[in-house]
Each structure stands twice: as C-alpha cells, then as structure tokens.
Amino acid sequence: MANIFSTSVSGLLAFQRALTTTSHNISNINTEGYSRQRVEFGARPAMDSGAGFIGTGVNTTTVQRLVDQNRELALRNATSEHARHGVLAEFTGRIDNLLADKQAGLSPELQGFFNALQDVANDPASSSAREVLLSQAESLTSRFQLLNRRLDDLSAENNNRIRTELEQINQHAENIARLNREIVAAQGRTGQPPNDLLDQRGLELKKLSELVGTSVVPQEDGQLNVFIGNGQSLVSGGSASRMSVQPNEFDPSVQEVVLQGGSRTVRVTGSLSGGSLGGLLEFRGQVLEPTRNELGRIAASVATAVNSQHQLGRNLEGDIGLDFFTVPGPQVLPRSANSDTITGSPDVAFDADTIGELTGSDYRLSYDGAQWTLTRLADRQEFTLAPGDTLTVDGMRISEGSLAGAQAGDSFLIRPTRQAAANIDVALTRPGQIAAGSAVPAGERQGDGPPVDSGDGAIGEL
User: Fold this and answer.
1) Could you tell me which of 286, 275, 274, 281 has the C-alpha nearest to residue 255?
2) Distance of CA 431 to the CA centre of its chain
3) What is the CA radius of gyration of the chain?
4) What are the distances in angstroms from CA 369 to CA 104, 126, 372, 408?
5) Which of 98, 79, 77, 84 has the alpha carbon at shortest distance from 280?
6) 360 near 290, Cβ under 8 Å?
7) What is the block-wise mean pLDDT of the chain (462 residues), using blocks of 10 residues?
8) Separation in Å, CA 158 to CA 161, 212, 246, 272, 289
9) DSSP-assigned letter for residue 287
10) How far apart are CA 12 and CA 6, in angstroms?
11) Sheet strands (E) in 287-389
12) pLDDT at 295
C-alpha cells in the first residue's frame, strides 16, 4: 500500500537533487566548455489498490546536458574557419606590407635602375651616368636579396608554427582518446551519461578544431572517432594517432605533415584544411612559395633580358659587352627515392629568346622507362621530352644532359626561379664595362641600309 511519507520523501529527494544540480550550474558559470545540466523526473511505478492505481512518488531518471549537437558542429566548423582565415590574414598581410611598401618594396628600385639605364642611353659618354647606373644596379640586386631573405624568414617562422601546432594537436588527440576511455568506463558503471566528462571532451574537440579541420563520428558505446584530411583517423575510440613532420622527398628544407598510426605513416599535407594548421599550409603552398617564385621570376627575367641586350653593344674599352648581371639558372632537385642506378641530372637553362614566357610555376620531370615527361605543377599541363631532344618551354631549355641509368619512376623537381632573387648580382665592376655603344660592322654601304661586311678581308700590318 502506498505510504504518504515515502511518497513525500521521494519528492523531497528528487528536488534536492534538482537544487544540487542548479547549484552545480551556478558554480560552473565561468567554467570553459561547461554545459548547463537539468534533472529529468519520472513517476515511480504505481500500486494496484484494487480500486485503481495509486501513485508512489517520483524518481530522478537522469541528469541531462542541455546541448544541441547541430550547434556544436556548426560552432566547431566556424571556429576552424575563423582560425584558418586569421592565420592567412596575418601572414599574407606581412607579405603585402613587405612588397607593396612604396619605400622598401621592389618597385622603387626597379624604377631607379631603368631611369639610370635611360640616362646612360641618352649620354653614353657620361662617366657620372655610368657610375649611377652601376650604383642603381647594385641597389636593385641588394633589394632582391633583402626581400628574398625576408621571405626565407617567413618560411622559417611558418615551419616553426607548423611544428608547434602539431604538438598541440597531438595533445588534444590524446586527451580525447583518454576521455573516450573514461566515458565508456563511467557509463558502464552507472548506466548514466558522465556529463562533466562529456563537457571536457567537447571542449577538447573545440580546441582541436581551432588547429585543424575535423569530422566526428560517434560510436554506439559513446566514444567518438575523429578524422582529419581525406578521412584519415586521428582518434579511434580510446587510441590516438600522432602527427609529425618529415622532409619533402625533393627538398629537405620543406616540411611535410605526416600521420603516424601504428606501423603506418601517411603523408597528409595536401589534404589538410581548416584551423590554424590548415591556414599555415595554405599560406605556404598558395601564397609564400608562389611569391618566392614570382620574385625570382622578375629577377631572372630582368637579368636575362638586360644581359642579352648588353651583349649586343660595345663598352668604352672597345670590347663586346659581357653579362651585366649574374643570375643562377633553374634549380634541379632529384627525388630522394630515385633508383640507385641513375647518375647525372637534366640540363636546364633559361632561354633568352623566350624569357618573357617564364612562369612562377615549379615543374616535375618524370621518367616512365621510355621517355621523360615534364609536368607544369601550376596547371598539370604535360610536355614530352624525347631522348636526345631539347625541349623549349616557358622560357627554359631542357635536355637530358648528363642523365644516365634512369629507371621508371625516377623524377626531378625543377624550380626555374627559386634561387634567382637570392643570388642575383652585378657582374660588372667598372663603369667603362657598360656596353652602351652600338656594335656597327665595317663594310660597304648598300643603298640606304646599314654597312654590310661583304668580304673576307682582315686588318694586318703593312
């Protein structure tokens, strides 16, 4: 038979738990990641009195977190994108400030050099104009080198930030895996959701999303699986994979992000997006590296074009003009996994006649066992290099050079302009070496045209 006292006590106990939960909510008002909790009530089983069922009181069925999973997902996604855009804005703004500065950028030095070049063309005999031209040329090459060093500094900072982000990602992944284990154990003991542990895991997921874009898939037992990139598993139940960096297969100075799970190591650099790590990788691949290549393209184009024209004139000493600038040719890097039998490297040089077609893209030269294929990485367009031939493309001349013993799968990375800005220099040392005079051939004048050397005579002693 129902007892009025036990029924009343059940109500007191139930609302005592509700008051305790309210107190818990108030106490954690400033706790990061805390979700408000609510006590759920349920009627006790009624007793059959013969004349009907009589209630026996109330029970607390569970303590529920007031969380909207859709909003949590939207918050994680928005947090990830905000962090990505923040990093991109920070680093891209620094490049913009560096190159667009009216005083410290490249444009003032280029304009000064061409103005000095015009002054020499207007008065080739002026020694002061020649000295100014050499000075402006040295200022121009110094500015190229300075800007390249600043971009190198940004690259080093980018690498350091990537390593720091990966350490934080690993820590959050380990925390999520640990909380997965603790949540399963707590639910197994009580059959009730451990709300505070769930809040802690939700906070770890939010912090992880600030670092890298994630997708979360729940398991039936309450654990969460976390995936990054193209579905690579970062957290699987109670175990976590680790992220680290490895040298690029062509350039050891470039750090590639890899995911290590058990005995497997997967390269994930190209698939990561979102979060500050995604922003850092996007900045490196889509802003920093293209900017370094474009800066080198300007240096190589100016140097090659000026050298080509300078070699057509004569200097004050009566000699044909030499190179005005020294500029390194395209950089050729072998793949670390190339076969042991391959020797030498392809011959790659700038083509003065088509230097205006030079792009800021990198290229990959790959061998399939019969012929070489050049792939422009910016748009994946392919060009065929047959054995013994020379390929002229995008301002470059490419041939097999000293290559021998190549096997299918061997490849090289070609960076046409990467080193140009760093190593451009002035080749001339004296104002008199500037070839500002026309190299006019001696011979008969035919009609209104220029003199033509029509004989085989030579100047000699009488």
Assistant:
1) 281
2) 44
3) 36
4) 50, 59, 8, 4
5) 84
6) yes
7) 76 88 89 88 82 82 86 91 95 91 85 94 91 95 94 94 96 96 90 90 94 92 91 91 93 91 86 93 94 94 92 87 92 93 92 89 93 93 90 93 90 94 94 82 54 51 49
8) 5, 15, 15, 16, 12
9) I
10) 10
11) 313-314, 325-326, 331-334, 347-350, 363-367, 372-376, 381-385
12) 95
Annotate 355-382 with DSSP letters as a single string.
Answer: GGG--S--EEEEE-SS-EEEEETTTTEE
Q: Are 358 and 420 in contact (CB under 8 A)?
A: no
Residue that is written with structure tokens 């855009």 in the block: 85
Question: In angstroms, how far is CA 77 from the centroid of its own chain?
Answer: 21
The one-letter amino acid at 257: V
* Token representation of residue 314: 């004569």
DSSP 156-179: HHHHHHHHHHHHHHHHHHHHHHHH
DSSP 53-97: EE---EEEEEEEE---HHHHHHHHHHHHHHHHHHHHHHHHHHHHH
Beta pairing partners, 113: none
Q: Are 157 and 164 in contact (CB under 8 A)?
A: no
Instruction: Yes or no: say if 451 and 139 are a contact pair by the CB < 8 Å rule.
Output: no
Neighbours of 419 (CB within 10 A): 19
One-character DSSP codes across 108-167: HHHHHHHHHHHHHHH-TT-HHHHHHHHHHHHHHHHHHHHHHHHHHHHHHHHHHHHHHHHH
Please report, in angstroms and rounded to a whole number, the separation of the first and last CA atoms in the chain: 146
Q: Which residue has the tokens 């997902």?
A: 73
- Separation between Cα atoms, residue 257 and residue 275, nearest integer Å: 14
**Alpha-carbon gap, residue 179 to 176, rounded angstroms:** 5
8 Å CB contact between 390 and 340: no
pLDDT, position 443: 55
Residue type, 195: N
Cα–Cα distance measured from residue 242 to residue 258, given in angstroms and rounded to the nearest whole number: 8
Tell me how far apart the alpha carbons of residues 343 and 335 are, in angstroms, rounded to a whole number: 12
Neighbours of 189 (CB within 10 A): 9
Query: Which DSSP string corresponds to 183-227?
Result: HHHHHHHHSS--HHHHHHHHHHHHHHHHHS-EEEEE-TTS-EEEE
Query: For position 457, what pLDDT does the model report?
Result: 47
